[in-house]
Amino acid sequence: MLINSQTPTLDVESSKFLPATDAKQRVSQFMKQLQDEITQALMDLDSVGKFHEDSWERPEGGGGRSRVLRDGAIFEQAGVNFSEVWGSHLPASILTQRPEAAGHGFYATGTSLVLHPRNPYVPTVHLNYRYFEAGPVWWFGGGADLTPYYPFAEDAKHFHQTLKQACDRHHSEYYPVFKRWCDEYFYLKHRGETRGVGGLFLDYQDGQGAIYRGPDPNGEAAKYSNQVGTIPQRTWEELFALVQDCGRAFLPAYVPIVERRNGINYGDRERNFQLYRRGRYVEFNLVYDRGTIFGLQTNGRTESILMSLPPLVRWEYGYQPEANTPEAELYETFLKPQDWINWTPTK
Q1: Which residues contact 6 (CB under 8 A, 6 or more apart)?
Q2: Pairwise CA distance, residues 230 & 177, whole Å
Q3: Of residues 15, 1, 94, 82, the one with CA closest to residue 298
Q4: Apex CA 96: angle with CA 92 and CA 98, to 5°?
Q5: What is the pLDDT of residue 88?
Q6: Which residues of the chain have pLDDT under 50?
Q7: What 3-state class would DSSP assign to 107?
Q8: CA–CA distance from 280 to each of 26, 124, 174, 187, 319 (Å)?
Q9: Is the dihedral of CA 91, 93, 94, 96 positive or negative?
Q10: Distance CA 134, CA 91 (A)
Q11: On the CB side of 79, how many CA atoms lie within 13 Å of its CA?
């Protein structure tokens, strides 16, 4: 009788850490709502450009809606996508990290965006939040990162502070780990530089074990996470709340930067440098980005997957910035991991 009387309590306790029966529906609804909120705010901000929506279906299961704004007053191109797909098996790009998901059908939903402003003084920005289920295995992932072309430390600090506030509502060690993870992930190994000033990156968050669940056991994110140690198990609801808060932190993190920089005059020098630096964005997204790889490996809509690429870009052989210029400062300081929260000028 004692064992029987305890069994329901144990079941209730363990079920707290499992997805709710309506988990897929709730996450999908949030991801669509986040897309709606962001596209409306961006149209209000731009005042000229409008989003064109393409709905698409995936033969293997699922689909999505892609929204793209082109030739706006502020945004040369802005894409905000929602997708919800399912299938019989996960691609190799996922199974290398979560082999226990092999042999199970999968479900994945998320919202992603990349905004390419016209003015070189306004940074490019990326966001992606996603949710996976594969049999008994589930996790949340995503993040946001800022890619400036011209260096403004106060912009990087504002972006990071806003995202940190969202993380701190859930755990004080989330931001320090996710920030380091972002620096690690958005790194162009063949160039020896970060894509920009970073932000947040998280993946395989299922509430168990250490915060860092990435591939580099010797990186800064892993080292910091190991110092923190294993934190108490977090429920599905707690991680969903984290993703919601981080997703909704995007507009207050980015819009003030756009408003502050869009009125700055620029000429051919700044525009040419912007187009050159956009080449790095293309290189990263086509060589390293796991979202691009996952989309292509699961037969997603190619136009939607590649909407992250800028409309105009240029490469230049052997480019070196002139000494003591803003372009040189970008390379010397802003393309290396920095503690932007506590940033103070050195000059």
Answers
A1: none
A2: 13
A3: 94
A4: 110
A5: 85
A6: 1-14
A7: strand
A8: 36, 12, 28, 10, 13
A9: positive
A10: 12
A11: 19
The amino acid present at 252, given as its one-letter code, is P
pLDDT given at position 66: 94
Tokens of 249: 């932190």
**Which tokens hold the place of 197?**
């000033």
At residue 72, the pLDDT reads: 97
Give the three-state DSSP class for 69: strand
- Please give the structure tokens belonging to residue 175: 């931001």
Looking at residue 94, what is its pLDDT?
Answer: 76
* Residue 160: Cβ-neighbour burial (10 angstroms; 0-12, 13-18, 19+): buried
For the four alpha carbons of 256, 259, 264 and 268, in that order, the dihedral sign comes to positive
Name the pTM for this structure: 0.91
Interacting residues of 336 by C-beta distance below 8 A, sequence separation 6+? 193, 194
Q: What is the pLDDT of residues 26-43, one digit of tens each?
A: 999 999 999 999 999 999
DSSP-assigned states of every residue in 139-201: EEEEEEEEE-SS--HHHHHHHHHHHHHHHHTT-TTHHHHHHHHHHHHSEETTTTEESSSEEEE
Measuring CA to CA, how many Å separate 324 from each of 145, 321, 346? 26, 9, 14
Active-site amino acid positions: 126
**Dihedral sign from CA coordinates of 243, 249, 251, 257:** negative
Environment class of 278 (CB within 10 Å of its CB; exposed 0-12, middle 13-18, buried 19+): buried
Distance between CA atoms of residues 94 and 301, nearest Å: 18
